[in-house]
Amino acid sequence: MKKPIVGIMGSGQDSWSELAVPLARWIAESGFHLLTGGGQGVMAAASEAFCGVEGRTGQCIGVLPVTRRVGEREFVPKEGYPNRWVEIAINSAMGSYQTNDADGVNRNFINILTSDVLVALPGSRRSGLSSNASVNSGTRNEVELAVRFGKPIILLGPSAEFDGFPEVVERTETITRVQEFVLAAVKD
Predict the structure, then answer these.
(1) What is the CA radius of gyration of the chain?
(2) Nearest CA-CA partner of 97 in 106, 110, 89, 88
(3) H or E segment at 7?
């Protein structure tokens, strides 16, 4: 039987550790794999917490943005990637989610289509900027892709942090509800 892959999406700057750490530990204790974008912020906090669980059987997967070395054919992860806890690195030269093309293919497609179930934490905490600002565009893009492809996804965090996100996606502030959601999704 295939071991479920739980994707945690969220800020590349802010860790949201009060949410990411207990969630990632629970994912590890449940015997699931963890998938993130392999960078800093939520991705690093979740990866570190996941890998810190003794006796876990799942792996920490990171889908990394890469860049071509000048004058060479070699692609290397962008600065800050992977965080040191990524055990399986998947390099992707796909474009940025900030493309003007609504159907533009980016590495978020890999994150969403590889995960069996997804949990999105808030984007960056930036004073003076609303959640609708571009600081949330990567996480919002991942949520929109999950909806587009019918992937089970739940938002974890303060509701105000998800302004402008698709209304059809359930929002919660409790890890307990996320656990119920994930278990129901991987059971199907």
Answers:
(1) 16
(2) 106
(3) strand 5-9
pLDDT in tens, 57-69: 999 999 998 887 7
Q: Is the dihedral of CA 170, 28, 138, 63 positive or negative?
A: negative
CB neighbour class for 27 (10 Å; exposed up to 12, middle 13-18, buried from 19): buried
Coil, strand, or helix at residue 21?
helix
Domains in the chain, please, with CATH?
5-187 (3.40.50.450)
Q: What pTM was computed for the model?
A: 0.89
Calculate the CA dihedral of residues 174, 177, 182, 184 and round it to 10 degrees.
180
User: CA 130, 134, 140 angle in degrees (round to 5)?
Assistant: 95
Q: In the predicted model, is pLDDT for residue 121 greater than 90? A: yes
DSSP structure class, residue 178: H
What six digits make up the tokens of 131?
């959640």
The torsion angles phi and psi of 25, rounded to 5 degrees, stand at -60, -45
